[in-house]
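Quick question, first post here. What does this chain look like in 3D?
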Amino acid sequence: MKKPICLITGVGSGTGASLAKRFASGGYQVAMLARNRERLISLEKEIEGARAYSCDISDLNELMAIVKAIQTEMGAPSVLVHNAVSATFKPFLEAEPEDLERNFRVNTTSLLYLARALAPSMVEAGNGAIMVTGNTSALRGIPTYALFAPTKAAQRILAQSLARDLGPKGVHVAYITTDAAINAPWLGDDSQKPSWLKPPPDWENKLEDYFAKPEAIADEVFHIAHQDRSTWSFDHIIRPYAEKW
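> Answer (accepted):
Ran it through. Tokens below.
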């Protein structure tokens, strides 16, 4: 039988790569979306059943063209993991308002476009899963997240709306909030680190206690995507044991 297909956005060297590896090991063909084509090609060679699709998620027309290519070349995805993220970490008087629009497009509007493109075939099949990875900025705002938190809060509410609509039709939608810094490979490596991310102070001495492991996050997402439909969850918050909350 043909393997099911999982489409993952935001496949970087941390959580995204771990998600791709976990779903591939779980029996899926994986369509990997990200801007960095070189990294995707490297992962494609490393992960059996994975295919690289270079894409700027903020360009919604390009995103839809890539989705159509995936549907034609691989088939209809039965799982979507929306892991792509765009962020700005500055107070509102220091950041450019255009950043809010860009962040919203990547974090929220693209989710709407993806759901509209992929959900119909899931509904027709009577099963499927849409997993959205988030963080605590979806639940609270702080001064330096003024142009980021609103987009993640909107993302979570959109996911909840999708869950209420699609759940009765057999499609599981869940929002997975990671309340932690993530132990990504780019920590301390400026050549890999996204320009908008900075490691927390004294991060080298806190990795084991306060940082979430990308592979552990991927395990949780895979588990939630395969929950028995009698016990589906929507809001799923994960954090390291030492994290205060």
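DSSP finds seven helices and nine strands in the chain.
Residues 97-125 form the longest helix (29 residues).
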